[in-house]
Amino acid sequence: MRKKWTEAEERSLIDKYGEMISDGTLSKMKTREKKYKPIALHVNSVHHLVDPITYPWEWSWKDVSNKVQNMRHQYSLVKQKIKSGEEGFDWVEGLAHWSNFLRYKEVFGDVTLPYGHGFDDEVVEFGNIGHSSGGDYQNGVMGLQFDYDGNGNGNGNGNGNENENGNHVYGTRKKRKTKKNLEKKAREMEACFEQREEKETKKAMERLREQRNQEWEVMENERRRRREEELVQERKWEERKERRRSEWNTRIDEMLSEHRAEMAQFQARILDEQQNLTSQLLGIVSQHPSGITDNTNVASHYLSQMMQNLHHVGGMLDGDAQVEGHNQDDEFIVDG
Length: 336
Hints:
The chain is mainly alpha-helical and 336 residues long. The chain has two domains: 7-154 and 171-228, no CATH class; 243-318, no CATH class. The protein is 64% helix and 1% strand. Strands 1-2 form a two-stranded antiparallel ribbon. α1 (7-22) crosses α3 (32-48), α1 (7-22) runs parallel beside α6 (101-108) and α8 (172-286) runs antiparallel to α9 (296-318). The chain is rod-shaped.
């Protein structure tokens, strides 16, 4: 029974292939088996292991490899069918021929039509390639649907023309030659497919690298823009802080000036009052001539104390430093 891929399985294969290209896993694999075995396991786990009735086939890595090659030719066929005009293509119409047409184009990239208008379905249709029951090549041949039982005489000396009864078997040599030619063509095709696949992988990696570079450039521009905004905000904040500091210093200077003016007025009043008190005291002393002798020492003491007070007040008027932080109470002597 021929193994056939469903569209859902094709879609899972393409998606997994694209995922491995994006994360760089596919480019690290050196052999086809290492490349396609994870894809086969993924497709089987999503479909066959979940619903073996709907998806009866368990695919091998060789099946996946051949399917990738077949899808390339399927894409070329559909692209040939949707061609309109000289270089135009109706891409949406391609979905009517193959539901995964655009998905394949997105992951594997576009395929240039190699034969122009001349190639047909028979040239690129590989039908049963890789669809043996075990997922392997039948008798070492890529399942190209020719009759070969795998038991022919391989000595190549022309003596393999007889069967067990000695009867000649016509065409045996021709079959062997046909088999060898087909095997050679199969190997050449496989090598060609591998080269194309390697080129496609490189192109996909290059596209991914360009995309990442663009993303990094966008991120770098965004980071630079944010940094510039932060610097602008920082400069504005520094300007506001400097302006507030200047305003505060101005207010402090004004308050100090007002305080000095008030203290000067206050000290002037005190000096005036002390001078008045001194005059009154001298007047009182002069009115008692009889008590001048007895009160000489007392008057001298009073006059000495008043002179000290006047000297202290004069010092307060001379320096601003004495205005601030001066806590000593002035002493006034009043004769009661």
